[in-house]
């Protein structure tokens, strides 16, 4: 199989987006990838990511799914997703295991704010949801609120206050889960003191 067909096959096999390392594994060298781009056989989307030219522009969500499959949308990005924040984040807040620090350092395709989470809390409250047609892992509402308390010093006061106030009035809230997560994360007193005032005020 010639390099042109092989490169196209690699992209198709990888679901429409291939990394430089995917080509190298199939015996296509870096300079050959560059040459195929120049000829218009493949198209560079962002640094180290390629698609077939006829594809529509790849979104941040597709890139996250591709390069950080273990990542979980969290904190600021999750708040915006649930409508608990009016501020569209300039960078994606993604929770990753502490063991993934090297992977995260190499991510240059999207603006990223990494939260390194210890193993015993990593999957707590993990769910999936639709982000512009792409299903990504995201922490549920309750875990996101607990994270607001955990990272209180990193959050703008306005964002924190809007988040907890909006959650208190959200028909989709699950106070049993909020209590459970807060206990597991050693945040119970902090979370409940604030939520009791908001819920009973």
Apparent shape? elongated
Major β-sheet strand ordering: 1-3-2
Spatial separation of the terminal alpha carbons: 70 Å
Q: What is the count of helical runs?
A: 11
Mean pLDDT: 90
Number of strands: 8
Order of helices and strands: HEHHEEHEHEHEHEEHHHH
Strand content: 15-25%
Largest sheet: 3 strands, antiparallel
Q: Kindly provide the radius of gyration, computed on alpha-carbon positions and rounded to a whole number of angstroms.
A: 20 Å
Offer a quick outline of the entry.
The chain has 201 residues and is an alpha+beta fold. 47% of the residues lie in helices and 17% in strands.
Provide an overview of this structure.
The protein is α+β, with helices and mostly antiparallel strands. Helices cover 47% and strands 17% of the residues. The protein has helices at residues 3-13, 20-25, 30-38, 60-67, 75-81, 101-105, 119-122, 141-150, 157-168, 175-184, 188-200; strands spanning 18-19, 43-46, 49-51, 72-73, 92-97, 112-117, 126-131, 134-139. Strands 1-3-2 form a three-stranded antiparallel beta sheet. A three-stranded mixed beta sheet has the order 4-5-6. α6 (101-105) links the parallel β5 and β6. α8 runs antiparallel to α9 (157-168), α8 (141-150) crosses α10 and α10 packs antiparallel against α11 (188-200).
